[in-house]
UniProtKB/TrEMBL annotation:
Species annotation: Solanum pennellii (Tomato)
Encoding gene (name): LOC107018331
InterPro entries reported in the protein's UniProt record: CMP_dCMP_dom (IPR002125), Cytidine_deaminase-like (IPR016193), DHFR-like_dom_sf (IPR024072), Eubact_RibD (IPR004794), NADAR (IPR012816), RibD_C (IPR011549), RibDG_C (IPR002734), Riboflavin_Biosynth_HTPR (IPR050765)
Keywords: Multifunctional enzyme, NADP, Oxidoreductase
Alphabetized SUPFAM superfamilies for the sequence: Cytidine deaminase-like (SSF53927), Dihydrofolate reductase-like (SSF53597), YbiA-like (SSF143990)
Leading EC class: oxidoreductase
Pathway: Cofactor biosynthesis; riboflavin biosynthesis; 5-amino-6-(D-ribitylamino)uracil from GTP: step 3/4
EC number: 1.1.1.193
Name the UniProt record assigns to this protein: 5-amino-6-(5-phosphoribosylamino)uracil reductase
Regions annotated as coiled coil: none
Domain CMP/dCMP-type deaminase: 31-150
PANTHER family assigned to the protein according to its UniProt record, in alphabetical order: 2,5-DIAMINO-6-RIBOSYLAMINO-4(3H)-PYRIMIDINONE 5'-PHOSPHATE REDUCTASE, DIHYDROFOLATE REDUCTASE FAMILY PROTEIN (AFU_ORTHOLOGUE AFUA_8G06820)
Highest taxon of the lineage: Eukaryota
Length: 602
């Protein structure tokens, strides 16, 4: 497992570990917590390659003596088999009473009598340490709540305990369940791009010959990677030139599906992949492509799936719907570039062989990405280097492993904004486009409001956005500012009002009222209050979200929205949660003002 965790896996010590006499009880306890959580993560990965990818659960039970001796272990071999916690409890027997159970991830089932939760409770476990909460929203927090309700002490790493060793243990837990985390966060399977290249960056000679670039040891590692995947993807060019089998050949029982992406179905009638006697093959293609060839493939037992447009993201969405957790891409440079550009590649494994082949027309691992400057280059994170025979394996993430803890707003701020929210056990409701389920929360929704003007006379505005943009120019003596307000009042849509207001603010900043940056949150707040008190059904919709974190899902607005990766300030979501709390009659006890504004062009 060391290669999976990038060297984070800690060798398990079978004998008791004594804490230093100078260490505090907390330091010793957290040291044991980190060690045994890492061990649980290591255990959870033991079935990799032998079963289909599934959520990885491991459990270690230790008695809280001077050395925290391990008395039981277990791991979930496959979905539907005995839970890790049940195995560990059975192994520990009577020694469970008063012991501590270490789980790399919160259990996903707490209902049946033989479940993980009931096993720990009945065994007399007194404390449970959890590496990470379950990433699936409908399961998140359920087991933790069930254990705590039975009187067990439950500590979640990073929430109840935190230090450097704890951070390393959390990372182990995140990495071992990276496929599940990416699936939960991105609604696509965890996608890994694998390729082998020469030292001068070629994946084949100019003639197309490519056997073999990497060593036998490296190819054995590739078999292991395939075994960790639900499916292996190649493009049509790979089928035509290499005629691969894409088998595992590692001795395990799990055989990933082979998937071919081909827009035109310009594929050979005979190929190893069309033999589906042992492993299924799926061909994804453009709708209507070569119907006669589709019939030929179907006659061989190959499944053909048509897409209106054969795009990697649509294919990944389809595989997500099929329940896949992890996909390995072993394609050529053209398809690799398309997959990277579509944002579906999360991790890269590059085998670099100490060979030079040269060739002006020799292919490279990744085709055209449209980048013209080195500053545009994609940088891997959490990079690991491993020597495999004569080759070097370079591994790293293109996208960080998702941390699904709701931090929009931050944990510290959540309860202050809306006391009804439990920051770790609440759901997150995203809203962005007005046609979304909660699109009526948007300031762009077409709900007219009446707001007083400078003379305290009510003026009707077509939407909150119309009013908000116009307020930028209120009180400015320049006649042009007044005409801007009238132009905004007549804007045909909220989008048009936004374009007009932003354009004027950008091109003629002298027309913007000088105090705008310090009052714009209050302007938006008053407009939202008017909207949600004017329309009873909007009021009811907002109240129906009680206990949930509201996030404006704009990927580009980092002030009012949550941003693409949760880096936004989400002020619109904050204001709605504050308004919701007021509507519930539960005024916040800490009347903290919202954070200072930025000078974003909003």
């Amino acid at each position: 497992m060391a290669h999976l965790l990038g060297g984070l896996a800690t060798p398990f010590l079978c004998k008791p570990i004594s804490a230093s006499s100078s260490s505090s009880n907390y330091t010793a306890a957290s040291s044991f917590d980190s060690l045994y959580i890492k061990r649980a993560a290591e255990l959870s990965d033991k079935s990799a390659g032998f079963t289909a990818p599934h959520p990885n659960f491991g459990c270690v039970i230790a008695v809280p003596n001077a050395g925290a001796t391990v008395v039981g272990e277990g791991y979930l071999y496959a979905e539907g088999t005995i839970p890790a916690e049940v195995q560990a409890v059975e192994a520990a027997g009577d020694q469970c009473r008063g012991a501590t159970a270490y789980l790399n991830m919160e259990p996903g089932d707490c209902h049946c009598d033989t479940s993980a939760v009931s096993a720990l409770i009945k065994a007399g476990i007194s404390r449970v340490v959890v590496g990470i909460r379950h990433p699936l929203q409908h399961l998140r927090g359920n087991a933790i709540h069930a254990l705590r309700s039975e009187g067990l002490q439950v500590d979640v790493l990073g929430e109840d305990t935190q230090n450097k060793t704890i951070e390393d243990a959390i990372k182990s837990c995140l990495l071992v369940n990276a496929p599940l985390l990416y699936r939960a966060a991105c609604q696509v399977p965890f996608s890994v791009l694998k390729y082998a290249m020469t030292l001068d960056g070629k994946i084949a000679a100019s003639s197309g010959h490519a056997s073999w670039i990497s060593s036998k040891k490296s190819r054995t590692r590739v078999f292991e990677m395939r075994g960790r995947s639900d499916a292996v993807i190649v493009g049509g060019n790979t089928v035509r030139k290499d005629n691969p089998r894409l088998t595992v050949r590692h001795g395990g029982d799990h055989l990933p599906r082979r998937i071919v992406l081909s827009q035109t179905l310009d594929l050979p009638e005979e190929a190893h992949l069309w033999n589906v006697s042992e492993v299924p093959t799926i061909v994804a293609t453009q709708r209507g492509a070569r119907r006669s060839f589709q019939r030929l493939l179907a006659s061989k037992g190959v499944e053909v799936v048509e897409f209106d447009i054969l795009d990697p993201r649509d294919v990944m969405g389809y595989l997500y719907d099929r329940g896949y957790l992890s996909v390995l891409w072993e394609c050529g440079g053209t398809l690799a570039a398309s997959a990277i550009s579509s944002g579906v590649i999360h991790k890269v494994h590059a085998f670099v062989a100490p060979k030079i082949i040269g060739g002006k027309n020799a292919p490279s691992p990744v085709g055209e990405l449209g980048m013209v400057e080195m500053t545009q280059a994609l940088e891997l994170i959490d990079v690991c280097y491993e020597q495999i025979g004569p080759d070097i394996l370079v591994s790293g993430f293109l996208q960080p492993v998702p941390d699904l803890t709701p931090t929009i707003p931050s944990v510290q701020e959540t309860s202050a904004i809306d006391p009804t929210i439990s920051p770790y056990e609440s759901s997150i409701i995203f809203f962005y486009k007005t046609w979304d389920p909660y699109g009526a929360f948007s300031n762009f929704s077409l709900h007219p409001i009446q707001m007083p003007d400078e003379n305290e006379e009510l003026v009707t505005w077509s939407s909150v956005e119309h009013y908000y943009q116009a307020q930028k120019f209120v009180g400015v003596s320049d006649p042009v500012a007044k005409s801007c307000i009238e132009e905004l009042k007549c804007a045909k849509s909220p989008e048009e009002a936004a374009r007009i207001g932003r354009r004027i603010q950008r091109q003629q900043p002298n027309l913007v009222r000088p105090e705008w940056e310090s009052i714009k949150i209050d302007v938006m707040c008053k407009a939202l209050q008017c909207k949600f008190t004017t329309y009873p059904y909007l009021n009811s919709l907002l109240l129906s979200t009680t206990g949930s974190v509201l996030v404006e899902g704009s990927p580009h607005d980092l002030f009012w929205g949550g941003g693409r990766d949760g880096e936004g300030l989400n002020y619109l979501g904050r204001l709605l949660m504050k308004l919701r709390s007021e509507l519930l009659g539960e005024s916040s006890t800490s009347q903290k003002s919202l954070l200072p504004q930025t000078s974003e062009n909003n």
